[in-house]
Backbone:
């Protein structure tokens, strides 16, 4: 091949020297036996179907999910069946577990622990799930919008998030709970006011990252509408981390509720929650340990189950995990 | 560039695209670029990273709005299209992306990825678009049985074939290939390049081929434009450009390509550039190559030179072009 002073070396082995002579260099598809023999063609499955299959194959996640369902059933059905969670019986205080009529024993006022535990489960789960759902919706809308619009709107919206985050959460919570009358509604409001920022930040980060992704650009070049891009590309791809965050936020909220109830600011006795059950139990700690350990164990197992389910969801929503 | 012969398919005139960086900085990513592409040809756009070639490509597929200047497609300004014409334009002009790992949605099957562009068109039923996607898979050298696979089950080269199929799905006339092979192994690069050439022959496609690999660009292009810091510094036919480059920057670039023959390589004259690419923000009004140019004179401080025809079909933006033109023949 002739080369001028600034001549161009051509990868002669790879590229044909004469462009018109390219038929000899044509890439004709090979039988591709290596790929074909690896796995037979699968029946068509949608992405969501595939994710569900993966989730169901994950035993830990399925067990966690089953545990959460059972706990919820216990809380909701149980508290309906056993309405007497405030009923006192001063002749039968501190009955140990497995006593006749009181499978989990009674507390210092003779209230049935099983009934109180069911009621407490109901209250704690309701708060945990409600606050997490509200935070999810608010955070997704706020963060997603902020990241997707970008520019000045993004700057202003994120500064607001920073201001909310900068004030210590406990101060906002304590202030609200002392000003408003205590109860489940106030607690939910207080936990939402401080809790949405995490999800907003995550949603913004996802939106920013996905917006500039090449497959989103490709969809735009193909003439896809904004709605299509958000629904078909951005949400499915953001969903993994968001679901994980959601699943993990439920135990976080329950923990915050329990903590506040424990220090006497959340759910007030005689109403029951995991937090104030544990508080009452702790007061009787050395002598009547079941009053502390029974609610604490149920609480811990539920937290664990939510976290494991979150992990399972993350794996299931990632097609790269497919075996 | 005016083309007397026929109306070019794509005509880029005085295109500028500025980005605001931080408070006051302006990044002139593309700063007054003009070129045209004739139907059926491959126009190569080369330059180092950050020279604005990708930005230019993205303006052409309407991902960015031009700051100034315009792009004409079959004589129509693409930023002033009616809604219907704009939809038509997205089907006439498509893009192949650089990174085959990032450009396919990991959560969509290959079939859904390829069918994506057919959907808003409403021309095909679900079944028809499925058949078309399978047909495209075999056209780009993949098996139709792969239709239900997800992108991560493919190699880089196979993924890029999917990217090509996605662009072809809407029957485009012009495809902007934005560094379509620079993320691939050299042996795979050749396969993809040959696939693109085969498709060009079969379907009569026109390519704007953006790349930084000069030998590759020579191989694929009919004409080549060399970009430096947002400006086109030289445009010529591939053969002419590589045989007798005029702009000092092009000369330096071409002399940097190693020659596979070691004896020839040893005896070769090299043009080494001094210094670095100057900072791209708020650039001064002079030839931007000034600081690194071995031929620089006082004339070079009077604004960025415009492209001028030095020979038939060979354009160069250099104040010293007449002197260099003579020089080129004496080498």
Residues:
């Amino acid at each position: 091949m002739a080369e001028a002073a600034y001549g161009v070396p051509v990868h002669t082995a790879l590229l044909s020297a004469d462009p018109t002579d390219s038929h000899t260099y044509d890439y004709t598809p090979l039988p591709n036996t290596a790929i074909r023999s690896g796995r037979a063609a699968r029946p068509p499955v949608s992405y969501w179907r595939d994710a569900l299959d993966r989730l169901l194959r994950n035993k830990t996640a399925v067990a966690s999910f089953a545990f959460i369902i059972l706990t919820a059933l216990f809380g909701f059905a149980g508290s309906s069946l056993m309405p007497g969670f405030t009923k006192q019986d001063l002749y039968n205080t501190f009955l140990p577990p497995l006593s006749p009529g009181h499978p989990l024993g009674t507390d210092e006022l003779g209230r049935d622990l099983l009934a109180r535990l069911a009621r407490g489960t109901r209250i704690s789960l309701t708060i945990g799930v409600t606050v997490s759902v509200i935070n999810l919706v608010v955070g997704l809308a706020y963060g997603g919008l902020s990241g997707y619009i970008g520019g000045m709107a993004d700057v202003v919206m994120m500064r607001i998030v920073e201001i909310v985050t900068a004030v210590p959460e406990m101060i906002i919570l304590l202030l609200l709970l002392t000003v408003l009358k205590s109860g489940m509604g106030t607690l939910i409001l207080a936990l939402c006011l401080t809790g949405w920022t995490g999800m907003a930040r995550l949603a913004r980060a996802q939106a920013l990252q996905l917006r500039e992704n090449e497959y989103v650009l490709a969809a735009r070049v193909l003439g896809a509408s904004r709605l299509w891009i958000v629904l078909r590309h951005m949400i499915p791809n953001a969903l993994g981390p968001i679901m994980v965050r959601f699943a993990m936020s439920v135990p976080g909220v329950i923990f915050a509720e329990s903590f506040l109830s424990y220090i006497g600011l959340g759910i007030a006795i005689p109403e029951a929650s995991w937090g104030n059950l544990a508080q009452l139990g702790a007061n009787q700690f050395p002598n009547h340990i079941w009053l502390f350990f029974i609610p604490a164990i149920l609480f811990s197992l539920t937290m664990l189950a939510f976290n494991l389910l979150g992990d399972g969801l993350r794996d299931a929503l990632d097609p790269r995990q497919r075996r | 560039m005016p083309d007397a012969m026929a109306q070019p398919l794509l005509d880029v005139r005085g295109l500028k695209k500025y980005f605001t960086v931080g408070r006051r900085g302006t990044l002139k990513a593309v700063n007054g670029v003009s070129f045209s592409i004739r139907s059926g040809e491959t126009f190569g756009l080369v330059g180092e990273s950050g020279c604005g070639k990708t930005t230019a490509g993205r303006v052409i597929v309407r991902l960015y709005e031009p700051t100034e200047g315009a792009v004409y497609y079959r004589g129509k300004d693409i930023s002033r299209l009616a809604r219907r014409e704009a939809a038509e334009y997205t089907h006439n002009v498509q893009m192949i992306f650089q990174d085959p790992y990032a450009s396919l949605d990991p959560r969509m099957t290959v079939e859904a990825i390829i069918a994506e562009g057919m959907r808003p068109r409403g021309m095909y039923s679900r079944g028809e678009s499925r058949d078309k996607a399978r047909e495209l898979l075999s056209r780009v050298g993949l098996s139709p049985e792969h239709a239900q696979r997800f992108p991560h089950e493919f190699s880089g080269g196979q993924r890029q074939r999917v990217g090509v199929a996605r662009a072809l799905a809407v029957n485009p006339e012009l495809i902007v290939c934005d560094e379509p092979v620079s993320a691939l192994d050299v042996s795979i690069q050749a396969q993809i390049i040959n696939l693109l050439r085969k498709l060009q022959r079969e379907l009569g496609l026109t390519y704007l081929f953006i790349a930084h690999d000069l030998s590759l660009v020579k191989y694929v292009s009919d004409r080549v434009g060399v970009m430096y810091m947002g400006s086109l510094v030289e445009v010529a036919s591939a053969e002419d450009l590589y045989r007798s480059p005029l702009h000092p920057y092009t000369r330096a670039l071409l002399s940097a390509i190693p020659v596979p023959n070691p004896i020839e390589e040893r005896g070769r004259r090299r043009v080494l550039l001094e210094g670095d690419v100057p900072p791209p923000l708020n650039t001064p009004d002079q030839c931007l190559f000034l600081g690194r140019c071995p031929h620089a004179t006082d004339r070079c401080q009077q604004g960025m030179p415009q492209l001028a025809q030095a020979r038939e079909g060979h354009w160069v933006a250099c104040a010293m072009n007449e002197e260099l033109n003579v020089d080129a023949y004496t080498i």
In short: Chain B has a mean pLDDT of 86. Residues 186-203 of chain B form the longest helix (18 residues). Residues 34 and 88 of chain B are 24 Å apart (CA to CA).
